From TrEMBL:
One of its GO terms (molecular function) is nucleotide binding. PANTHER family: BILIVERDIN REDUCTASE A, BLR3664 PROTEIN. Residues 3-123 form the Gfo/Idh/MocA-like oxidoreductase N-terminal domain. This is Gfo/Idh/MocA family oxidoreductase. The lineage of its organism: Bacteria, Pseudomonadati, Pseudomonadota, Betaproteobacteria, Burkholderiales. Pfam families: GFO_IDH_MocA, GFO_IDH_MocA_C3. It comes from Ideonella livida.
Length: 356
């Protein structure tokens, strides 16, 4: 039974702990080793789960080591804590984003490569059965060559959300808080992005931080993408509200928030409604397309991610999201933020244009 310690007893940490409880964790061959968190909430979670409590990572590392650690700590602790674990040879699953800035993230990428110790990053949507079905459809060429991608990230955050002062200041808006999820998904489905344009607005709450933004993406394949995000829109077209994968959010399962359009068909997600040009026929707006819906079995992405982590630690799988991959998603998110701030086209120099 793999012993996995949890650093961080916040909302995400508690979700991990719940999935490592004996009734659930045993099925994946893992159990909660201990909880690391200096707050009373950390001690309470450890007591609730019946495991040791450590006030710091140093305390954990001074005791018999776990087989692996999940880092669900504040962003600025991700890299220093991960580096401490790598020095002791302990595999780690880091919650997204991988780092608080690019320099720290690059340091982690290099140290992970040198150590050979598994480092995974918790972009859990890649474990979604819905998105894996969409990915398989794209890879199989069922849509032809991707032409356009459209994503809507529209929701309304409640007033209480902004009682935390940092959420009303620069860096606390939906671009840096929410879009790393969506942009990682788009990179995974449609490939790397070579250039970004964006416009942000503050018209609804009149705060220093944006409440809405529109983004234009140019993919290395030549496809173009549009993304609209707002946390002040009374709308259900966001991943959480359409996919039903997180029960904390109200759901409308009749709606989609992502459209992948290619030369031979298109796919709406998460309903997985697919349109395809008939075999041998010419694609034309004068001809009706065949319409169907992909079918997938329900799956909890966080549980699937933990199962994958266990398999990687045991040497039976390769990481789905490595540190360098997650760093590319962070880099893209920061490029969107810079484009919205400057009004200029931001080109991602590490990506070569024209690469499919």
């Amino acid at each position: 039974m793999l012993q996995i310690a949890l650093s961080g007893a916040g909302q995400v940490g508690r979700e991990h702990a719940r999935r490592l409880a004996p009734a659930v964790g045993a099925a994946m061959g893992a159990r909660l080793h201990s909880v690391v968190d200096p707050s009373p909430a950390g001690a309470a979670l450890a007591a609730e789960q019946g495991v040791p409590h450590h006030r710091s990572l140093d305390e954990l590392l001074a005791a018999p080591l776990p087989d692996a650690v999940i880092l669900a700590t504040p962003n600025d602790l991700h890299v220093p804590q991960a580096l401490a674990l790598l020095r002791r040879g302990v595999p780690v699953l880091i919650e997204k984003p991988v780092a608080h800035d690019l320099a720290a993230g690059q340091t982690l990428v290099e140290k992970a490569r040198q150590s050979g110790v598994p480092v995974l990053v918790g972009h859990h949507r890649r474990h979604s059965a819905l998105l894996q079905a969409a990915k398989a459809s794209v890879v199989a060429g069922e849509l032809g060559r991707l032409v356009a991608v459209n994503t809507t990230v529209l929701f309304h955050k409640p007033r209480a959300y902004f009682e935390a002062a940092w959420r009303t200041q620069s860096g606390g808006g939906p671009i840096l808080i929410n879009l790393v999820h969506e942009l990682d998904t788009l990179r995974w489905l449609a490939g790397e992005v070579v250039a970004v344009q964006a416009r942000a607005g503050h018209a609804q709450r009149h705060l220093p931080v944006e409440d809405s933004a529109a983004v234009l993406l140019e993919f290395a394949s030549g496809a173009l993408g549009t993304l609209i995000v707002s946390d002040s829109a009374a709308c259900v077209r966001s991943w959480e509200q359409t996919s039903g994968e997180n029960p904390a959010y109200a759901r409308d399962d009749s709606q989609d928030c992502l459209l992948l359009a290619g030369t031979r068909g298109s796919l709406a997600v998460p309903t997985l409604t697919r349109w395809q040009v008939e075999q041998g026929a010419e694609a034309s707006w004068n001809q009706a397309m065949r319409r169907d819906r992909l079918s997938v079995a329900p799956l909890d992405p966080l549980t699937a991610q933990l199962q994958h982590f266990v398999e990687v630690v045991k040497g039976r799988a390769e990481p789905l999201v490595r540190a360098d991959d997650a760093l590319a998603s962070l880099r893209l998110c920061l490029a969107v933020h810079e484009a919205s701030r400057s009004g200029q086209v931001v080109r991602l120099a590490h990506v070569q244009a024209g690469v499919p």
